[in-house]
Amino acid sequence: MGIEVYLNLFSKFFHANNKSNNPKKFTICLPPPNVTGYLHIGHALTIAIEDSLVRSKRMQGFETLFIPGTDHAGIATQTVAEKKLFKETGKTRHDLGREEFLKVVWKFKETHGNGILNQLRRTAGSMDWDRLAFTMDDNLSKAVAEAFVRLFEMNLIYRANRLVNWSTTLKTAISDIEVEHIDIEKRTLLEVPGY
Questions:
Q1: Following DSSP, what letter does each residue of 110-176 receive, concatenated?
Q2: CATH entry, 3-178, from 3.40.50.740, 3.40.50.620, 3.40.50.1970, 3.40.630.10
Q3: Which of 24, 121, 132, 188 could bond 62 through an S-S bridge, CB–CB 3.0 to 4.6 Å?
């Protein structure tokens, strides 16, 4: 039997029943891989460990839910899609404008995201494929917005004027882990990309 036949045959086998009266429930979410490339051995290891936990709980009588999905990868996807766009057309995202560039990124996501999902399916993890999630899905985006509003209303997060890490190339704020820190002892002229 080919892998595709096997996957289709068992795609509903691990469907979690959200109306179950079982008081013992166990849910785990697969850390979503980025849509910018392919799965690697680290993903396989994570899936193997999580799947072992899920199957163990299932054998102990728990109603289990193992949620698969992919991540939009934000800036990483934007960068890869923009490089591909420039290589193929000689245009940048600024040449296209926001709406047209978003179409390019979504097309990129569909192409690479589906490849990653096929790889995820081939790991044979006991995931509930009916609950497949993508971090930019409308319901998840709304949930994130709702969470931030609630956290703000509870004074657990706040707005303030603060320094941010600004990428002169990407023209956006980036996280601390994406910054290269350089200690400068005295006044020094530096070259800044894009300026």
A1: HHHHHHHHHHHHHTT----GGG-EETTSHHHHHHHHHHHHHHHHTTSS-------EEETTTTEEE-G
A2: 3.40.50.620
A3: 24
pLDDT digits (tens, 9 = 90+) for 68-81: 988 877 777 788 88
Give the number of other CB atoms < 10 A from CB of residue 116.
21
Radius of gyration for the alpha carbons in the chain, expressed in angstroms and rounded: 21
Please give the Cα distance from 103 to 99 (Å, whole number).
7
Give the total residue count for the chain: 195
Instruction: Give 128's contacts (C-beta < 8 A, 6+ positions apart).
Output: 14, 15, 16, 65, 66, 67, 68
Retrieve residue 112's tokens.
């690479």
Average pLDDT over every residue of 37-55: 91
Encode pLDDT of 105-116 as tens digits.
Answer: 888 888 777 888
Q: Name the one residue in this structure whose structure tokens are 């023209």.
A: 171
The Cα–Cα gap between 144 and 164 comes to 22
3-state class (DSSP) for residue 9: helix
Which residue's structure tokens are 């790991």?
A: 123
The pTM assigned to this predicted structure is 0.68
Domain boundaries, the chain: 3-178
Give backbone dihedrals phi and psi of 38, rounded to 5 degrees, phi first: -130, 160
